[in-house]
Automatic annotation (TrEMBL):
PANTHER family in the record: CELL SURFACE PROTEIN, OUTER MEMBRANE PROTEIN ASSEMBLY FACTOR BAMB
A Pfam entry, by short name: PD40
InterPro entries linked to this entry: PQQ_b-propeller_rpt, PQQ_rpt_dom, Quinoprotein_ADH-like_sf, WD40, WD40/YVTN_repeat-like_dom_sf
Pyrrolo-quinoline quinone repeat domain mapped to chain residues: 200-418
Residues forming coiled coils: none
SMART domains: PQQ
Official protein name in the record: Pyrrolo-quinoline quinone repeat domain-containing protein
Positions of transmembrane segments: none
């Protein structure tokens, strides 16, 4: 359900669980939202939007969806109980194909959650990791294009593809081995093993909260170490260009600016968000606001950094196993100066962030780890456009994650409550 003028209205019907090769469709439902522009002194004008479709797989958890560059397909991976990657038509949620990672020979009985999905820049190949293996699958039909067995070590986060598509960067770790590898994709092999085909390797203990990220021009690879060091490597040979020490706290996910001159990150569990010079690792600015909760997210024009910070309320353990505080806040920070433009607080007793915000030119979306609620804010001023309860089954424990279509007209949201659905919601607000 969602809130309209302080009242709760029915939400979309719950998904019906189906087999792993079938989508489940919910009847489209017109949803009443809270319009962002108030009429003259009399409150907000009622507005409508639509639940386009929903999909359920035989899995207890789906990860963050990824949308193809042409906007025609949305991809989502599942957990160790299902180990599938699904490709769905964005228009109606119909299943295009399903890839069963557990059937691949490199698994040797090992099971794990599908990592975050990563697309090549041309949209032709979808890359991901699970357990002891990395895979590449054809985005058009789900056929296997690459299999890389790194046993006996385990992967750390998703792989990263260079802008030219010629290198796959990956981090993996065991009790004795801690390595970043630059896999040579120009060999055009379908099966890789170990590190023999790596252009280079770099020994380091990569934090699970800060897996490698490549710069826009492909010359630098950023990551955070478990020793609390934000690091940049030269992608040409894997040597260290610089390191920025943030003491004992874990470095959060690093996000390079669109022009490649700055890199942003949070210091997990602290009050600090940093902006560093990409050339030498020196500090541009630091923004402090209560307790950091999410990785920074850039606006499409690169001028604003959106961050999620936990509030000053009571601590609650969320379904992700982390502590979250009430009164969580989204802050829009000027990317150049580090000064706050606006902030929005949920003023909720049970919020906690489900993940980083998602931003379009017009709106900022974020989800609650504890309520299963998603908010839409006006990107220019931070006023609330609408909020919707993604936990359609009525569970208060949900973990929504989201992705926008290229035209920003549809937002795809994962709910990890009892319905375990991927939902497609329209983002346009139409006066009723």
């Amino acid at each position: 359900s969602l809130t309209l003028f302080g009242h709760r209205t029915p939400a979309a019907p719950p998904c019906v669980r189906t087999s792993s090769t079938q989508s489940s469709m919910c009847t489209p439902l017109a949803l009443l939202f809270l319009a962002s522009t108030p009429s003259s002194g009399t409150g907000s004008t009622p507005a409508t939007a639509r639940t386009k479709w929903s999909f359920t797989a035989a899995s207890d958890k789906l990860n963050t969806p990824v949308v193809s560059p042409d906007g025609n397909t949305v991809f989502v991976g599942s957990d160790r109980d299902d180990m599938h990657v699904y490709a769905l038509r964005t228009a109606d949620g119909q299943l295009r194909w399903a890839f069963n990672a557990s059937e691949m020979p490199c698994f040797q009985g090992y099971r794990g959650d599908i990592s975050r999905l990563v697309m090549s820049q041309d949209g032709d190949v979808l890359y991901f990791g699970v357990g002891l293996c990395y895979f590449g699958v054809n985005a058009a039909d789900g056929s296997l294009t690459l299999s890389w067995n790194i046993a006996p070590v385990e992967i750390v986060g998703a792989p990263v593809i260079s802008p030219d598509g010629q290198t796959l960067y990956a981090a993996f770790v065991s009790y004795a081995i801690k390595t970043i590898c630059a896999l040579d994709l120009t060999l055009n092999k379908s099966i890789y093993a170990g590190t023999n085909d790596c252009r280079w390797t770099h020994s380091t203990w990569v934090s699970e909260y800060s897996p490698p990220v490549v710069s826009p021009d492909g010359t630098l690879l950023y990551f955070g170490s478990e020793e609390g060091i934000a690091t940049a490597l030269l992608t040409s040979n894997g040597t260290k260009k610089w390191g920025f020490q943030v003491y004992w706290r874990d470095v959060g996910r690093m996000v390079p600016s669109l022009d490649g001159e700055t890199v942003y990150f949070s210091r997990r569990g602290s009050t600090d968000y940093y902006a560093l010079n990409a050339s030498n690792g020196s500090k541009r600015w630091v923004y402090r606001y209560l307790i950091t909760s999410t990785a920074p997210v850039l606006s499409p024009d690169g001028r604003t950094v959106y961050i999620g910070v936990d509030g000053d309320g009571a601590s609650v353990i969320g379904p992700d196993g982390r502590y979250h505080r009430a009164n969580s806040t989204v802050v829009a920070v000027d990317a150049t100066s580090g000064r706050a433009k606006w902030s929005f607080s949920t003023s909720s007793a049970v919020t906690g962030f489900a993940g980083p915000p998602v931003a379009s030119e017009a709106a900022v979306y974020f989800g609650s780890a504890l309520e299963g609620r998603m908010w839409s804010l006006d990107a220019s001023e931070g006023s609330e456009k609408f909020s919707i309860n993604v936990s359609m089954s009525g569970s208060t424990w949900a973990f929504p994650q989201a992705a926008l279509s290229p035209d920003a007209k549809t937002i795809f949201v994962v709910s990890a409550s009892n319905d375990k659905c991927l939902y497609a919601f329209g983002t346009s607000i139409v006066a009723s």
